[in-house]
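Annotated sample (chain length 120).
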Amino acid sequence: MLHPLFKFIVYLFAVYGALTLVLSILAAVRGRSFISGAKVKVILVVKDAEEYIEYIVRNAVKGDFISRVMSGNNLTIIDMNSSDRTAGILNELKKEYECLDVLGEQEKDKVFSDFNSRIS
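Output written by the structure step:
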């Protein structure tokens, strides 16, 4: 009784593994073709985020999210006049990571003008 049940479970895991492998390969091929011609810019707009901004930025950079998803290889962060230490934390992170563009609220229009010039 246990032998046929064991075989069934093994076959079930084998089929699941094969399907997972095929779907992963398809997702990688499809993702690569989508990203190769795309113009993607991720903009993070923050205000009073000193508790979690460092965690978010470090994980985005450490996980290689920036180079895999964005065409410009830069993460733009706009601080909307935070009343806490968010701006200071962002400026310290900018010194550590070259891929960060940290802008203030008054510079937010620059983001769209830079993006428009890169597209054409």
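Annotation: Strands lie at 43-46, 75-79, 100-104.
Annotation: Residues 39-120 form one domain.
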